[in-house]
């Protein structure tokens, strides 16, 4: 069994630009539109996630983590996808007390991701 710290040691890329570009058939206009929507929607999902963790609301955590995992997968933000998967598993197993460290990693990752996405949108 993995320790919690090992579990969060995600080796996925923050943003796999080439994978995302391939999935949208090289359409850079669509890329910018999708990334813009992601950047607009994600802060409220992160707030919901935080609120759910703080209030120990398993359903809220599961819903926000599931939505974030899907949104991250849509744009090839593989590390954020994996971290939300880990959070989802913890919530489903009733281990909300173990989620704060993962949530901190999600926030750090999102901040790095946001900078990468903004730089790709500026191209």
Give the tally of β-strands: 0
Q: How is the main sheet built? A: none
* CATH homologous group name: HPT domain
Compute the number of helices.
6
Helix content: over 70%
Structural class per helix/strand content?
mainly alpha
**Shape field:** elongated
SSE ordering: HHHHHH
CA radius of gyration: 15 Å
Name the beta content range: under 5%
Overall average residue pLDDT:
90
Number of domain modules: 1
Q: What gap, in angstroms, lies between the N and C termini? A: 43 Å
Residue runs with pLDDT of under 50 for 5 or more positions: 1-7
Identify the CATH architecture: Up-down Bundle
Q: What is the CATH C level class, in words?
A: Mainly Alpha
Using the coordinates shown, work out and report the CATH topology: Four Helix Bundle (Hemerythrin (Met), subunit A)
Fold and architecture overview:
This protein is mainly α. The protein has a single domain, classed as HPT domain (Four Helix Bundle (Hemerythrin (Met), subunit A)), CATH 1.20.120.160. Helix content is 76%, strand content 0%. The chain contains 6 helices and no strands. It has helices spanning 4-7, 17-23, 28-54, 58-74, 78-92, 99-121. Residues 1-7 have low confidence and may be disordered.
């Amino acid at each position: 069994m993995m320790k919690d710290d090992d579990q969060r040691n995600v080796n996925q890329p923050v943003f796999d630009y080439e994978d995302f570009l391939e999935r949208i058939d090289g359409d850079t206009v669509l890329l910018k539109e999708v990334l813009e929507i992601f950047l607009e929607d994600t802060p409220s999902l992160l707030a919901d996630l935080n609120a759910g963790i703080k209030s120990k609301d398993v359903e809220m955590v599961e819903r926000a983590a599931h939505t974030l995992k899907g949104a991250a997968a849509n744009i090839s933000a593989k590390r954020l996808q994996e971290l939300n998967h880990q959070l989802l598993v913890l919530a489903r197993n009733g281990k909300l007390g173990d989620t704060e460290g993962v949530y901190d990693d999600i926030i750090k990752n999102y901040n790095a991701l946001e900078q990468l996405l903004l730089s790709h949108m500026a191209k």
